[in-house]
Amino acid sequence: MADVALPGVVSALVLAFQGLSGLAGVLVDDSSSPSGSASKDIVTIGDDGDPESDTVATYEQEWANFSQTRAKETGSIPCAVIAQSGSTKIDSVRVRAGVLLNVCAAYVKANPTLDGQVSSMRLSAGDMMPVQTDLGAAIIAPFTITYWTQI
User: Fold this and answer.
1) Strand 58-63 versus strand 27-29 pairing type
2) Considering the domain boundaries, does residue 1 fall inside one?
3) Where do the DSSP E strands lie in 26-119?
4) Higher model confidence: residue 119 or residue 30?
5) How many whole angstroms separate alpha carbon 116 and alpha carbon 101?
6) Would you say 108 and 126 are in contact if contact means Cβ atoms under 8 Å apart?
7) Average of pLDDT values for 58-70?
8) Structural domain total, the chain
9) 50 within a domain of the structure (yes/no)
10) pLDDT at 1
11) Residue 135 vs residue 76, higher pLDDT
């Protein structure tokens, strides 16, 4: 058993999201700078999708018993859905971002223990940020997965 669950939780989320049929064709990555064309949809795990942000995955531990043999770990993992197009129309990418976000949310809701990796997890926060560049429109929808487990 690991002394810190966070790295394993991030890896398990990446693998789980990569296997979701609703994310077929979507780059699922744990990198802060995923590569992809202007028309590629991306889901990042462990990063909020904003290159100017310093948001990182965090965890805290406290003893879970008086004999100090088990610890309770609570962690927050920033993630993001990034929907992009070569068009300047923001509505279609907002809809696409919503579809991708709901695929991620449905997985977390249906698998709150991440197949036994954690005691509980949930989507705990999120927002949507429209972006217009010379490459087209994008929606960056950061969200946070919060978990707790005993180690």
Assistant:
1) unpaired
2) no
3) 27-29, 42-45, 58-63, 71-84
4) 119
5) 23
6) no
7) 87
8) 1
9) yes
10) 62
11) 76
Which range is least confidently modeled, 29-33, 74-78, 113-117, 121-125? 29-33
pLDDT class of 107 with cuts at 50, 70, 90: very high
CATH value at residue 51: 3.30.70.1700
Structure tokens at 9: 């939780």
What's the first-to-final CA gap in the chain, in angstroms? 7
Q: What is the 3-state secondary structure (H, E, C) of the chain?
A: CCCCCHHHHHHHHHHHHHCCHHHCCCEEECCCCCCCCCCCCEEEECCCCCCCCCCCCEEEEEECCCCCCCEEEEEEEEEEEEEECCCCCHHHHHHHHHHHHHHHHHHHHHCCCCCCCCCEEEEEEECCEEEEECCEEEEEEEEEEEEEEEC
Tokens of 127: 């927002």
Instruction: Kindly state the tokens that stand for 109.
Output: 């809701």
The type of residue at 16 is A
Residue 1 in tokens: 């058993």
Confidence of residue 134 (pLDDT cuts 50, 70, 90): confident
DSSP-assigned letter for residue 21: G
The one-letter code for the residue type at 128 is M
